[in-house]
């Protein structure tokens, strides 16, 4: 498989570019790519550019070939609204959600979230998750990088996005996920933390127009529930 790399700047139509230091290190030192090896570059604006690698000491250059207008985005614009999860679970959730085709990820602070982030720590963690999203695109072939939004409180989130379909996973709900009517536009999927949504949070979500859905009779972990639901919705409404 040809290695794919995200370039954090607009790629020119032709010519040779120098790869950023971190990208060059990953290509030459980690992946051990050599002179003349083919790579694929993308800048997040859509499409991708085949290129040939040139390693010159610690620097790497890429000779660009003709741009290919390849799109691998799902016809379903699905946003994952994920309550903060502890440890490395958020990394896993972000990476796999991107691979499954979500359009964006909104981390929310829930009452029962074990992980608590604010200020500079929160900003740095979001920046880290954005890089995880980039790696998910590099691996899965996506040429547009989903945005990881700044962390917000659940009620702050509920005050926005009222115009789209919002589905909240709730083991006590009576409707199945696939009972929902396919939206004409964006759909947003709310996933609770390890301890689940509180009664007050569920009530606030219902008041804001969120539709409660369940995934069968089983209670799934937070790192499992969202990914299972994304796959189900991609099967029903997307491109699976």
TrEMBL record:
InterPro entries assigned: Alpha/beta_knot_MTases, PUA-like_sf, RsmE, RsmE_MTase_dom, RsmE_PUA-like, tRNA_m1G_MTases_N
Domain Ribosomal RNA small subunit methyltransferase E PUA-like, first and last residues per copy: 20-55
One of the Pfam families matching this protein, by short name: Methyltrans_RNA
Chief subcellular location: cytoplasm
GO MF assignments: methyltransferase activity
Gene Ontology BP, a term: methylation
Function: Specifically methylates the N3 position of the uracil ring of uridine 1498 (m3U1498) in 16S rRNA. Acts on the fully assembled 30S ribosomal subunit.
Family membership noted in the UniProt record: Belongs to the RNA methyltransferase RsmE family.
Name of the featured protein: Ribosomal RNA small subunit methyltransferase E
């Amino acid at each position: 498989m040809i290695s794919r790399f995200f370039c954090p700047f607009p790629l020119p139509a032709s010519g040779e570019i120098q790869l950023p230091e971190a990208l060059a290190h990953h290509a030459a030192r980690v992946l051990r790519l050599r002179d003349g090896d083919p790579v694929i570059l993308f800048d997040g604006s859509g499409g991708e550019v085949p290129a040939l690698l040139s390693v010159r000491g610690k620097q790497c250059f890429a000779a660009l070939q003709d741009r290919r207008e390849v799109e691998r985005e799902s016809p379903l614009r699905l946003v994952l609204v994920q309550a903060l999860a502890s440890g490395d679970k958020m990394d896993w959730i972000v990476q796999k959600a991107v691979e499954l085709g979500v359009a964006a990820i909104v981390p929310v602070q829930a009452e029962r979230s074990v992980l608590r982030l604010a200020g500079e720590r929160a900003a740095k963690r979001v920046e880290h998750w954005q890089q995880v999203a980039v790696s998910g695109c590099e691996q899965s072939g996506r040429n547009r990088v989903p945005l990881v939004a700044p962390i917000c409180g659940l009620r702050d989130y509920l005050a926005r996005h009222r115009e789209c379909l919002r589905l909240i996973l709730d083991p006590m709900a009576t409707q199945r996920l696939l009972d929902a009517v396919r939206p004409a536009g964006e759909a947003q999927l709310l996933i609770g933390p390890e301890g689940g949504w509180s009664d007050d949070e569920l009530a606030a979500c219902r008041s804001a127009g969120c539709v409660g859905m369940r995934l069968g009779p089983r209670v799934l972990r937070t790192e499992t529930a969202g990914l299972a639901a994304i796959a189900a919705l991609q099967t029903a409404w997307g491109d699976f």
